[in-house]
Amino acid sequence: MANVLVLVDHTGGKVRKTTAELLTIARRLGEPVAVYIGDGVQDALPALGQYGATKVIALTDPELSQYLVAPKAEALQQVAAKVEPSAILISSSAEGKEIAARLAVKLESGLITDAVDVQEGPVTTQSVFAGNYTVKAKITHGTPVITVKPNAATPEAAETSPEVEEFDVSISDAAKTARITDSKPREATGRPELTEAAIIVSGGRGTGGDFGPVEAFADSLGAAVGASRAAVDSGWYPHAYQVGQTGKTVSPQLYVAAGISGAIQHRAGMQTSKTIVAINKDEEAPIFELVDFGVVGDLHKVLPAATEDVTKRKS
Ligand code: FAD
User: Fold this and answer.
1) Ligand 1 centroid vs 260 CA: distance in angstroms?
2) What SMART domains does its record include (predicted)?
3) Among 103, 188, 210, 246, which residue is least crowded by beta carbons within 10 Å?
4) Which atom in ligand 1 lies closest to the alpha carbon of residue 245?
5) In a 3-state reduction of DSSP, which class is residue 13?
6) Alpha-helical regions (H) of 108-237
């Protein structure tokens, strides 16, 4: 079976859920080989084995982490030259997409970004024009380089014990033009990461800028907090929490939209959620076309009441 390379997305050895999704997809296409860049590969091994990586290629040269994306693209090119994979899968993060683009140029290969599904072939599915069209595509030149959006697959366990192969790379001076001078983790909220959360409570313009009731309800459920672009553009919530076409794509078990009208660009980021609940004071709001449960009412009254109820049930 042909090898399929998966670039591991991790923070200091803690593997992100998107990598489990990529490994699950890679198993449909061939033999999943994980490419791990940075320190902490031993910490990452159990998670990589759990989702079926048969081998882990470890690139530990510190220069790979000292500069922005260019050295990583060069390193992947060198790994690809040795492994000759049938496809390369990378997470659709900002960094992932930049690495993928540079890599595709180096390999003289076709590139597909933001796939929401990848099947044998590999044939990709993309959701475009705010989810109004679904495009199926196949790369016909070179080694397919594909970036995959979060939640494109449900991670399926397949216990393996991957062997680790250290891989030496040589990084050109041209790739070392942008050095990372400082990096700080985002302030910890104690809430789950937006794209990985099972429950998300999002607030929109209807909050009037007060996200207190949204956060309190989210905390009662152990949920992540999201926001519409109107709320983000108003400076009420950071862009990292924006859900939608120009924000994050989420697909939780439960998505609660409070004070959000349901514009097509917002739907594009959350319409695949398993259960959707909306709280909106306008019974004609378009979000109600999409929901499983709708509450017509003022979120400043509905959310505190719901929070109190959930808290009571838990005690
Ligand atoms: P509004 O549309 O103003 O809706 C507010 C809702 O709150 C209304 O339905 C109102 O009835 C209700 N409300 C008001 N007060 C209360 C209350 N007290 N209690 C309950 N309900 C109340 N948007 C995104 O969200 N994500 C994106 O990624 C995104 N990308 C975009 C990309 C492009 C290229 C463009 C053109 C637009 C994009 N947008 C995006 C913007 C999108 O078109 C909408 O403008 C935006 O989603 C509206 O946000 P909203 O629903 O919070 O605000």
Assistant:
1) 5
2) ETF
3) 188
4) 28
5) coil
6) 212-221, 229-233
Answer yes or no: is the C-beta of 296 below 6 A from any ligand 1 atom. Answer: no
Whose tokens are 């009571």? That residue is 312
Chain centroid to Cα 307, Å, comes to 28
Among residues of the chain, what percentage have pLDDT more than 90? Answer: 82
Phi–psi pair at 236, nearest 5 degrees: -85, -25
Number of Cα atoms under 13 Å in the Cβ half of residue 60? 10
Structure tokens at 199: 């429950």
Q: Cβ–Cβ contacts within 10 Å for residue 305, how many?
A: 13
Structure tokens at 100: 């993928």
pLDDT in tens, 233-276: 999 999 999 999 899 988 889 999 999 999 999 998 998 888 99
CA 169 to chain CA centroid, Å, is 27
How many angstroms separate the CA atoms of 304 and 122, rounded? 48
Q: What is the pLDDT of residue 151?
A: 81
